[in-house]
């Protein structure tokens, strides 16, 4: 095999301007640590049998902390052996527990137990297989995956006998916690709670999971257990902070990755311009999938084991097919050594792919992001990422699959023809130089907390002491539930007084609205659901809908019944919906007056209507046409923060009137982009509307609103720090070196108007005008 970097440098693209940046990182030696004294010889031999003869320092450190009862999060690179951090102490605890376990205050025999949580069912099942491989037929470990696929007998066995349960937060929320009395034996012994892949618990979903974990802790405590939490996260900023927010506990972090890594180089690659023309005659680049296929063929023909990440299943198949065709022309025998991987494989199929890659029978694999969870592939020679995967942390994780001992490895980002990707490959410092993002969540969000307080009260009466556990916002939440007549206070605490199941009131994965069901017309199979608020834009008639990497076309969408009938298809185009949005102020709750400008917080009705969709040719992005749609107007009543500027103040800035709408729109986008820094939300949890003259205020107004019905606390946070927020927004726009606006400053990836109109310089002028008023004004909300 030749060196992957040398091979890349010999491709024509390396010298014709496609290779924009190449950055090398030195090899890293492993740092080993002694096995903890409490790990017995048999367990050590079992680890060695799976390839781990010696422990890496971060594994030993995290395992020691967990063993000592300290909550710990391990946030190290892909395949750095994070699972040893919990396997060592948890297996040891179960094996050394004697059958004469102590009894707790409730008279229940306390034999230790372990709860393992993964974000998906498939991953929990994989970890069950990994645990079985480690402990073999040792009957002291009685493990069970508990999920929606269990038979009645399996579930019964798990309740009666299992001491290691692998499940997901959804099942905990809906089943295990509400029927905790049946799981009393298991909960009473809870010694370790393992939360794997914690970087998935972010935004509103993360906030829900945070309360599910608090409910778990409360019930475990009621049975006399005080488990140690061991969390595993992909590399992320401030992992201890996120883990503490997630669990409500003080969590220590282990972040120094001691696993060995070979030398690795990162390349940023931009496909070349081609002869075709896009919308309005704009130049078009070769598609990222075609480019990745070419690179995959080049690398495989040099014997380099390469993984190509592609966003859709169809894209992955295109890359593999094209690479095979290219290889077939020159090295017929290599063509068969390129395969595809997608979600939905059986565990045995996944293991076979892992082995084929490891042993070199397979040299190239094109995959969707489905590979991110549940497949153990590392130590490859090269990774190609086709299109920026959304966060630097996700890119780092994909690149982390490349890295061999004793040789160099390569990670290449191939840009798609869109503004965000283009910006990033031209600004390596923004991508490779910047730290990875933190996993943001906000458990104090009052709209998330209420449903979990209700569920908790039904599980067992809520007490004053519990309010501290649920954290800021809990008291207000309980009071609101009492006022609504759902909870009643008695001597022992607050009780749930309704007849229905409180847990059913909360869908931890939904962002609100009745979910639309997506049904495959050919098989009648329910493929999944889309949140009500997003269905019009994603599954309208004619929409190309990608579900777990598979493409479908929507044949019929019924917005009233919430059903979309789809057919598996692989059209040569993509679709994107166009939306018209309007906003009306329902009530203004608070106002900060800054001389002639003002900032307000209140309730709004956001009306949106999906009016058409645009078809674009896959790859080239060429616009094929716009199709009108007849869909209802949707109204979301929610919280918003807004600021206003009177027309004469705007005119005095000298900004040309035709630029004002674009200036307000650009300021809105930038403000939305910056709020997650201040409000621990996700960009997708909020939305915005801006107008040069709003009928309710009579002035230029920029609104930023929560994307959840009833609000989610983000706009409120924005209002509380509005002055600081606007200053930061202004700085972010002004310090961006792009000439006319880019995704780093004023372009938004989720704009319903395709980022039209936008004026970057205008946005700075408007923000300066507001901030000037604020410096004149007497009251400052910041
Ligand atoms: N100390 C060690 N020495 C050698 N190999 C090890 C060691 N620890 C773990 N491994 C191997 O590394 C691989 C990855 O381990 P593991 O799945 O625990 O990593 P991870 O960090 O949880 O991975 P992911 O990033 O995919 O979540 C496994 O094949 C495992 O056997």
Bound molecules: adenosine-5'-triphosphate
**Annotated CATH homologous superfamily of the largest domain:** P-loop containing nucleotide triphosphate hydrolases
Radius of gyration over alpha carbons? 27 Å
Average pLDDT over all residues? 88
Number of helices: 27
List segments where confidence is low: pLDDT < 50 over at least 5 consecutive residues: 778-782
> Largest beta sheet: what is the strand line-up?
1-13-20-19-16-18-17
Please give the oligomerization state of what you see: single chain
**Distance separating the two termini:** 60 Å
Classified by CATH, the class of the largest domain is Alpha Beta
Question: If classified by CATH, what would the architecture of the largest domain be?
Answer: 3-Layer(aba) Sandwich
**Approximate strand percentage:** 25-35%
What is the count of distinct domains? 4
Number of strands: 33
Could you say which overall geometry the principal axes of the C-alpha atoms support? Answer: globular
The biggest sheet amounts to: 7 strands, mixed
Task: Using the coordinates shown, work out and report the CATH topology of the largest domain.
Answer: Rossmann fold
What keyword list fits this structure?
ATP binding; alpha/beta; disordered C terminus; binds adenosine-5'-triphosphate; Helicase_put_actinobac; helicase; 782 residues; seven-stranded mixed β-sheet; seven-stranded parallel β-sheet; globular; Rossmann fold
